[in-house]
Design goal:
Largest sheet: none
InterPro entries: DUF420
Pfam family, one: DUF420
Shape: globular
Number of strands: 0
Number of helices: 5
CATH topology: Four Helix Bundle (Hemerythrin (Met), subunit A)
Strand content: under 5%
Protein name: DUF420 domain-containing protein
Keywords: Membrane, Transmembrane, Transmembrane helix
CATH architecture: Up-down Bundle
CATH class: Mainly Alpha
Radius of gyration: 18 Å
Structural class: mainly alpha
Helix content: over 70%
Order of helices and strands: HHHHH
Oligomer: single chain
Length: 187
C-alpha cells in the first residue's frame, strides 16, 4: 500500500528535514518567544527531563527490537518497532523543545568546570551532531518504507539509509542518557 508518492520521497524528506531542523535551531537559539507556548507549572517543567530519559531508553529498546526483527525477516514487527521509535522520538523532541522554549533556554551545567569542558560538552556536542545528522536519513528511510510495498523495498535504499539512521539514533539516544545522568544524577 502506497502512502507517499514515490517520486516525492526525496523532496519530502528534504522539506521535512529543513522544517524540523529550523524549528529545533530556532528553539535552541532563543528565536521562539516564551509566549509562543502555554505556561506550565514548574513541577511539569522539572518532570520533562525525567520523562525524556524514559522515552530515550524505551526508544533504544524499540530501535534495537526493530533492527533484530528485520534481521530475522519479521517485516511487520520491524515496521511496528520503527514507527513506535519515530513516535517516541517525536514525543521526546516535542517535550524537549517545549521545555527549552518555556524555560528560556538550555539548562546550565551544575557540575565543576573541568567536567563541563572535558566530559559534558564533548558528549553533548556529539549527541547533538548525531541527532541533527540523523534527521534526513531517518525521514528518507521512513518515507521509503511508506512509499513502497514491502516486496519492493529491497530494491530501494531503505535498508542502507535505515541502518545509518538507526545507528545514529541509537548512539544519540544513548549519549542523551549520559547528558541526563550528568545533569540530573551526578550533579
Amino acid at each position: 500500500m502506497e502512502y507517499v508518492p514515490r517520486e516525492r520521497v526525496r523532496s519530502l524528506a528534504a522539506v521535512l528535514s529543513v522544517v524540523s531542523l529550523t524549528v529545533v535551531f530556532a528553539a535552541a537559539g532563543g528565536r521562539i518567544p516564551q509566549s509562543a507556548v502555554p505556561t506550565a507549572p514548574e513541577w511539569i517543567l522539572d518532570l520533562i527531563p525525567h520523562v525524556n530519559v524514559v522515552i530515550s531508553a524505551t526508544a533504544i529498546g524499540t530501535i534495537t527490537a526493530g533492527w533484530r526483527a528485520i534481521r530475522r525477516g519479521n517485516v511487520d514487527r520491524h515496521r511496528a518497532a520503527m514507527i513506535t521509535s519515530f513516535g517516541l522520538f517525536a514525543a521526546f523532541l516535542a517535550l524537549y523543545l517545549y521545555r527549552l522554549v518555556a524555560t528560556g533556554g538550555p539548562q546550565p551545567f551544575p557540575g565543576p568546570e573541568s567536567v563541563y569542558l572535558y566530559v559534558y560538552l564533548p558528549v553533548l556536542a556529539i549527541h547533538i551532531l548525531l541527532a541533527v545528522v540523523c534527521i534526513p536519513f531517518l525521514y528518507y528511510a521512513l518515507l521509503l518504507g511508506f512509499a513502497y510495498p514491502i516486496e519492493e523495498l529491497p530494491r530501494t535504499a531503505h535498508a542502507r539509509f535505515g541502518r545509518i539512521a538507526a545507528s545514529l539514533w541509537l548512539i544519540s539516544f544513548s549519549l542523551g542518557i549520559v547528558v541526563y545522568v550528568l545533569l540530573h544524577v551526578v550533579y
